[in-house]
Amino acid sequence: MDPFAAMNVVGLLAFAVAGSLKAADAGLDAFGVTVLGVVTALGGGTTRDVLVDRIPASLATTGDVSVALVGVALAVLLIRRTPDHVRVRDTPAFLVSDAVGLAAFAATGALVGTGAGLTPYGVVVLATVTAVGGGSLADLLVGRVPVVLREDFYATPAVLGGVAFWAVGSLGGPSSVQAGVCAGLVFATRMLALRYDWHLPRIRVEGGGEN
Amino acid sequence: MDPFAAMNVVGLLAFAVAGSLKAADAGLDAFGVTVLGVVTALGGGTTRDVLVDRIPASLATTGDVSVALVGVALAVLLIRRTPDHVRVRDTPAFLVSDAVGLAAFAATGALVGTGAGLTPYGVVVLATVTAVGGGSLADLLVGRVPVVLREDFYATPAVLGGVAFWAVGSLGGPSSVQAGVCAGLVFATRMLALRYDWHLPRIRVEGGGEN
Amino acid sequence: MDPFAAMNVVGLLAFAVAGSLKAADAGLDAFGVTVLGVVTALGGGTTRDVLVDRIPASLATTGDVSVALVGVALAVLLIRRTPDHVRVRDTPAFLVSDAVGLAAFAATGALVGTGAGLTPYGVVVLATVTAVGGGSLADLLVGRVPVVLREDFYATPAVLGGVAFWAVGSLGGPSSVQAGVCAGLVFATRMLALRYDWHLPRIRVEGGGEN
C-alpha cells in the first residue's frame, strides 16, 4: 500500500467519525449525520485536489465514499452509547478521531503537493489546508465558528507536520517515512496541546466582545 | 436546443426564484435578494465546472446571469403579493421552484460529468453536488443549516436521478432522454416526499440537542 | 513593478487589516485574529485563481502570506489602541482598509481575467468575485451574513470598476492605467456611498422578517 492510499483511508475513516459526532451534537437526525460525516471526510481532500487542478478523488472513485460510510457507521454506534446530556464533541472518541484525521490529511496534502511540484512553502500550505479543510467545512455547515479560528493548536500542528515532511525529504527520507513522521508529529502535537492546554505566546488583543 | 442548454435555463430560472425567496425570508432588502438569487442560480453550476476543471459558464457567458435576473424579477413579484406574516419558504411557489432547480441541475451535472469522462459513480456524485450546491450555499450565506443536512429527501432524489441518467444511457437512450428521465425522477421524488412526508428508514441517533 | 504585483500587495495588506479587525469584533483571540486576517487576504485571490484554472498564488509563493502577516501586525496595533466598548468594524480604520482591499482586488481580478482570455463580461464578473470574495468568506467564518448581501454599494463599486477597466482598455489604455482607474473608481464609489449613505433605487420587498 503506497503512503497516500494508507493515509487517505485512515483520514477518511477518522474524519467521517468526527463529522458524524459533530452532526449529532448539532441535533441533526440520521440522514444529516451521514451527510455531514461524508462531507467532513471528503471536504479537505476535494479542496486539495481543486487547488492543484486535478479532478477530485471523491469524483473519480467509489472507494472514498465507501470508507467514509464505514466511519459514519462506527460513529452511529458511538452516538447510541453516549448518554443524552453529554456533548459528543467533548468525548475522547471525538478528540482522538479528529486528531487522527488532522494528522492523516496533513500527510496526504504534503504528498499531493510534492507530486504536483509545489515549492516547500506550497507543500506546507497545502498540508495545512487539507488537514483543516474538512473540519472547518463541517463547523460552517452546522453554524459554528470553525475550530481552526478558536484554537491555536489546531492549524499549528498541521504546519509543523508539513515542515517535518519537507525536512525528512530533504534528508533523503523516502515518501513513506516523510508521511509517517508528518502524521505522527501532527497527532502528537495536537493531543499534547489538548492534554496540557498549550497555547501560543499571547499577543493580547482587546476591543473584542461578541458581534 | 441541446439538453444541457434547456436544463440549464430551467434550473437557473428556478433556483434564482428559490434563492430570492430565501433572501426575503431572511429579511434582506432588494439588493440582497438580487445577489442571493444570482448566487443560488450560479452556485451549483460553478462548483460543477470547477470540479471537472473547466472555466465556469458563469464567467464565460452573459446568458446565465441574464436568465438568473429574470428569475429574481419573478420572485420579487411573488414576494410583493405575499402577506407579511407568511414565511415565503413555506409557500408552494418556493417548494416547487426549489424542486425544479434541483431536478434541472441534477441533469446538467450528469451531462457535464459524462462529457468529462467520469465513471458512472462520478457522474452520480457530480449530479448530486450540482443539484444541492446552489441551495446549500444560499442557506450558508443567510446563516441557516443547509436543507441538505436537515431533510433526507433533498439529496436522495438527486442521487436517484443520477442513477437513472446512467441506467437510461446504458440502455442506449440518447442524452436528451437521459436528461429528461433524470430531471423528471428528481422532481417527482422530491415533490412526493414533501407531499407525503417521506423519510428514509430511521437509524435512531440519540445524544443530540442543540450546540 | 507590474500593475498586478502592486495591486496585489496593496490588497493583501488592506484585507489582512480588515479581516483581523472583524475577528477582534467577533471576540477571537490573537491566533484567530491572525488566521482570519490571512484567510481574508488570500481568499479572494485564491477563488480567482481556481476559477480560471491556475494554481493559486497563495500556494506558489511565500510573498502573499508574508504581506498578509504584516497587515495582521498593523491591525493588532490598531486593536490595542481601540477602547473596549467600540466595535472595531465601525471605525474609519476598518472602513478605509476594507474599501482599499475591495478596490485593489477588483483590479487584480480584472487583470487576471484579461490575461486568461475571458470576454469583457467574464472580466467584470471575475473582478467582482475577487473583490468581494475575501470579505464574504471572513463574514461566513465568524457567523455573520456577508456584507455583500447587506449593502448594495459593496458589490456595485466592484462591478463599476470592472466595467471601467474594460472601457479604458478598449480606448487603448495600458494595463497599468486600466488597473489604476479601476481601483480608483471602486475606492471612490465605496467611500462616497458610505459617506452619503447611497443606495440603489429601491424595489420594495415585503414579506421579510427574521428567519
Question: Can you describe what's shown?
Answer:
Chains A, B, C: Residues 7-78, 96-168 form the Glycine transporter domain. Chains A, B, C: Its main location: membrane. Chains A, B, C: It is a multi-pass membrane protein. The structure is a homotrimer of 211-residue chains. Chain A is mostly helical. Chain A has one domain (3-196). Helices cover 75% and strands 0% of the residues of chain A. Chain A has 9 helices and no strands. Chain A has helices spanning 3-25, 30-51, 57-60, 63-80, 92-115, 120-141, 147-150, 152-170, 175-196. In chain A, helix 1 (3-25) runs antiparallel to helix 5. The first copy, chain A, starts with a helix and ends in a 15-residue tail after the last helix. The model of chain A is unreliable at 206-211 (pLDDT under 50). Chains in contact: A-B, A-C, B-C. The B-C interface holds B 23-33, 35-36, 46, 50, 53-56, 58-62, 65, 76, 79-80, 82-84, 86-88, 140-144 and C 50-53, 113, 116, 118-119, 121-122, 125-126, 136, 140, 143-146, 148-152, 155, 199-200, 202-211.
